[in-house]
């Protein structure tokens, strides 16, 4: 018959085993001064023998800090989000913080619930890698802990910092690249109406007019709807497509394959994000590089500044760059 698991050892168990007070155990395990090396060694040995691990959340309630940052994501399936998290974890670790992840699963109600859970866990700040969270929910969270949004919320509420890339400038870089390759019929394809995608669309349209070209924008509600929307455009003679993100661009590569349009000989495709996905597909995807890890690192910096007493809002915008790969080539080659 299986034995029931023994209870988790407490700080009182360590104190009894080491023959010292509970407060001295706490001082020793925190590394504070005032504990002799021999006593600290005895306490550490007792803790190791018992398998004692300190309760970070309980300690945080007492000290007012948990040394944990909460990170709220819209979609774990999007490599852009995971790349941003890599930058967050790196900077948080350097500052001595751990990271708790919460996944919204592309659902606004779940995002709100997950945000509330992170705040209830007494994290020392929340980074929302999402523009989907309701501004009122963000503002409510910010009254209890610093909040930074990575992305472009439609209406950033007061008391919230943001960090994003220059979406319009990125789309203009894609246009400059394609026009330089001789393309004149260039379309923008989007599967989103969020502020970032709209910024990219506006940048594309402005750059089109600047180059003396007529813009063609195709909007689909989902990736699954793209074939119906894009196929007529490709048959009309469009020779290059700019996608609102890499996931959409990869779907466009698939559509081109199904239609028998070689890339880049007949069709050039540019993505946006330069996520890890861009280097995995064939042909490798030309994409606008958002500095994803730097977005994450900047978010941590803004969060720590808030914790340090800054009260003015900051909205930082980072510059993108184009990374040319095999999905784009000269027109008519």
Automatic annotation (TrEMBL):
The keyword Phosphoprotein does not apply. Transmembrane segments: none annotated. Keywords: DNA-binding, Plasmid, Transcription, Transcription regulation. It holds the Pfam family LacI. The keyword Cell inner membrane does not apply. It comes from the Bacteria. Residues 9-63 form the HTH lacI-type domain. This is LacI family transcriptional regulator. It comes from Streptomyces cavourensis.
